[in-house]
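FAQ

Q: What does a record look like?
A: Structure on top, sequence underneath. For example:
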């Protein structure tokens, strides 16, 4: 299906990008301009970049279906601080447009030194239209502003084990069942080779992915592949940021590569990625209540991961801030609960008010698992 893209500068230096059927763009230049070629992966996934410019229209062109999107820019992560980014998308099956949805702009996750800036990604399901509204912060619009459209594809084929079964009872905390990267179809060719490790894990940070909540659990691998491609191909990170992810059915997935039992250095809690592990609940839990199965999955992986280093899930541990963009100046020693929320380290809504309120329950369940 051919669709056209129109961009217009609005009041206040706003950049707007509108994708619509060519029949609705009759007043625009009808010249055919190809969409930039998508960056593809072995599993059939792709990422398409569309520039967002202020003050001049984009020529109508075709684009590709996508399931997740975000906005990125050149320069520092905080270059758009004080600004806002809103998006609307059109459902590929029904042709209906969504309401405007706001993307989180501030530096809230990722490596402590990111290659460039970007919003949090948003999972929207199969879509073929997008509108983006960007209001600049005090510093204006950053250079290289662009929307990234991610198609997760069908996943990379692999003969590796699809899941790690729960380990039998032992003196240490038993490992829960974990779906491997091969199980969710990770294309290992797009990430950086080799692995990056930190010191022993002292704290588990709980996140939400700020994506759709009412997904079918069978779609969780597609969501994870989309986040992976966005983190690597759009944000420029070495791998997916989270160490683990948990879906609404309680299934636990391996995140960043390097070994689930190893202290893999993640990119999840800006300033506190060292000596910690990031676990993300797939969905958005600001007002939507996280299912009990998800809470149980978060408790299981937290209990096991902290148990590997002899940490009680209801204890405390100290971490040193590695970034002035966190809640604490770089070098500050901070006392955390061993199971903490993303917002405890960074100014963010994550993991959502509804999930954050469940952290005491997650800690209690995790301690029972450790002591059973």
């Amino acid at each position: 299906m051919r669709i056209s893209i129109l961009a217009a500068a609005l009041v206040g230096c706003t950049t707007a990008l509108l994708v619509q059927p060519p029949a609705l763009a009759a007043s625009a230049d009808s010249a055919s301009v190809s969409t930039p070629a998508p960056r593809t992966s072995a599993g059939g996934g792709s990422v398409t970049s569309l520039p967002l410019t202020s003050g001049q229209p984009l020529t109508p062109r075709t684009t590709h279906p996508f399931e997740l999107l975000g906005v990125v820019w050149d320069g520092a992560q905080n270059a758009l601080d004080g600004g806002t980014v809103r998006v609307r998308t059109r459902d590929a099956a029904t042709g209906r447009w969504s309401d405007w949805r706001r993307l989180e702009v501030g530096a809230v996750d990722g490596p402590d030194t990111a290659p460039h800036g970007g919003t949090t990604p948003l999972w929207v399901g199969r879509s073929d239209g997008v509108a983006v509204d960007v209001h600049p912060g005090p510093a204006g619009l950053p250079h290289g502003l662009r929307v990234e459209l991610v198609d997760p594809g069908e996943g990379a084929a692999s003969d590796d084990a699809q899941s790690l079964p729960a380990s039998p009872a032992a003196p240490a905390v038993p490992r829960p069942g974990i779906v491997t990267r091969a199980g969710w179809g990770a294309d290992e060719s797009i990430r950086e080779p080799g692995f990056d490790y930190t010191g022993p894990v002292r704290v588990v940070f709980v996140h939400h992915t700020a994506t759709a909540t009412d997904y079918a659990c069978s779609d969780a691998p597609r969501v994870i592949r989309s986040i992976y491609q966005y983190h690597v191909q759009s944000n420029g990170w070495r791998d997916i940021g989270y160490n683990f992810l948990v879906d609404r059915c309680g299934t636990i997935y391996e995140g960043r590569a390097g070994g689930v039992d190893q202290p893999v250095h993640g990119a999840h809690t800006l300033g506190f990625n060292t000596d910690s592990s990031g676990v993300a609940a797939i969905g958005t839990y600001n007002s939507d209540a996280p299912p009990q199965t998800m809470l149980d999955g978060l408790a299981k992986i937290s209990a096991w991961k902290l148990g590997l280093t002899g940490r009680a899930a209801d204890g405390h541990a100290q971490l040193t801030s590695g970034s002035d963009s966190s809640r604490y100046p770089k070098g500050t020693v901070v006392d955390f609960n061993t199971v903490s929320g993303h917002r405890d380290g960074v100014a963010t809504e994550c993991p959502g008010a509804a999930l954050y309120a469940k952290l005491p329950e997650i800690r209690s369940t995790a301690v029972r698992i450790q002591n059973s």
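Q: Is there anything notable about this one?
A: The first helix runs from residue 181 to 184.
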